[in-house]
Prior knowledge:
The complex is a heterodimer.
Chain A: H1 5-16, H2 19-56, H3 72-81, H4 93-111, H5 128-149, H6 153-184, H7 189-195, H8 201-204, H9 206-223, H10 235-238, H11 248-273, H12 290-310, H13 318-345
Helix pairs in contact in A: 1-2, 2-3, 2-11, 3-11, 4-5, 4-11, 5-6, 6-9, 6-13, 9-11, 9-13, 11-12
Chain B: H1 2-30, E1 56-59, E2 66-67, H2 74-78, E3 84-92, E4 99-109, H3 118-122, E5 128-131, E6 145-147, E7 154-155
Parallel strand pairs in B: 2-7
Antiparallel strand pairs in B: 1-5, 3-4, 4-6
The structure holds iron/sulfur cluster (SF4) (2 copies).
Amino acid sequence: MILNIFTDIHNKLLEHMSGGAAHITELILIAAAYLGIFAILGLLLVWLERRVAGFFQLRLGPNRVGPFGLFQTIADALKLVSKELTGTVKADSMLYRTAPYFVITTALMALSLIPFSHEIQAFDINIGVFFLISVSSVGVLGIFLAGWASNNKYSLIGGMRTGIQMISYELSVGMAIVTMTVLAGTLQISEIIEIQKDGWLIWKGHIPAIIAFMIFMIAGTAESNRTPFDLVEAESELGAGFHTEYSGMNFAYYFLAEFVNMFIIASVAVILFFGGWLSPFGITDTIPFAGLFWFTVKVIGVIFIFMWFRWTFPRFRIDQLLTLEWKYLLPVNMVNIVLMALIVWLGLTL
Amino acid sequence: MSYFSDIINGTKTLLTGMRITGKYFFVNLFTRKDVITRQYPDNIDTLKMFDRYRGEVIMLHNENNEHKCDACTLCEKACPNGSIEVIGDKKINPETGKNVRFLVKHIYHLEMCTMCGLCIEACPQNAIAWGQNYHNTAYDRSKLTKVLNKPGSKIVPGLKG
Lengths: 350, 161
Ligand code: SF4
Ligand code: SF4
């Protein structure tokens, strides 16, 4: 078991209080910290998206509030907080109010698994990758319920599209991850990273790993509901899709969760393919917390690719979406798993 | 097999698209060369409107404070919403002895104008034209009612009358 700052906190707390109380305090502290991370991540990523979008479209993006417009999203968030929470009369009130929390809770649970560096990982169980896949599929429920409970035809269509899209692309994401776990031979996230000390998995697994990476990126974009897979929101057809009826903070929850989900998917890509917090060729492995830097750099790199997709490709039609998944990605994925298994079996890894 | 060529072609075209947008991104990130954003009001001194811009109707005056309007009121009649009021008067020209019309006030209501340009097309003397001023807001409605002929201005001598 690696020694991380969470065990340090645990030991510190144990000096001052009994076991049970220490445990609960620890949980509360870590939960608060992760809520903070969630908010900051969301706001930063929204800012990044807007700046990047600006440059892609020959604009400048927000550049007025604070240095480089960094505080623009904070100002926007403040505006959203101060807004009235409106709702429809005929909405299924209970589901309508709880739906945003499904999305946030699952995003937070998935976030707890992400190792930001050697020292920072809140929850490191031996079925980490499996837990991650299962938890992130619950998030769909939030979108689905929002679409259903709003009692609005646009929301409903948006929600239904989510169902179709998630069932399809969950498969590809899962199978791309399975391909990589065949190579890694473990489901525990910290171990997957340990294994990559002598070479990142995308290098070790060469051809099938690169194919898996491409599939993961495509399906990951679909998982996070981003263009070109944003049929769920599809501004030009559905108003705002599943969150048409949400205002103020309830809307902001969806908005932030979408960006945090993108971060989670990018982190999974970094963990599975690019060695997580490991530095390239182990150049800074001895410096504590240097992992945080490398992890951030890599994740931002992957996120940039997602943004590049978004500002390049037009939106799919629903039939094209399904064709892509069931006729192309899935068969390629299946062949790829077999290929990876053969390569591991024959010892052809690099 | 069209299945595999589809995959290869699809990937190729996607990469072509990404190359194009990627070029835009990096060129703009490092040089800001092609950025089309105009940062109003920072550039207020250098900002110039393009020729076709319809800011407001103005009356052209030359350097001797002379305009070409002879108060024929064609612009007033051409305006679909009555934004123009031409006030003219008559006096005897001492040289020719003829009774001629001259312009007293050319009143223009910017607050009602739809920038349709019919008045400018109707003017036989080309006395009025489009101005490029874009700072047209005012706190008081009456500020938008303007007299287009400058104080003390006369018609260009010899033009008519
Ligand atoms: S531009 Fe059109 S609306 Fe405006 S004053 Fe001329 S004729 Fe009237
Ligand atoms: S501006 Fe032109 S159309 Fe209008 S009254 Fe003067 S000369 Fe006639």
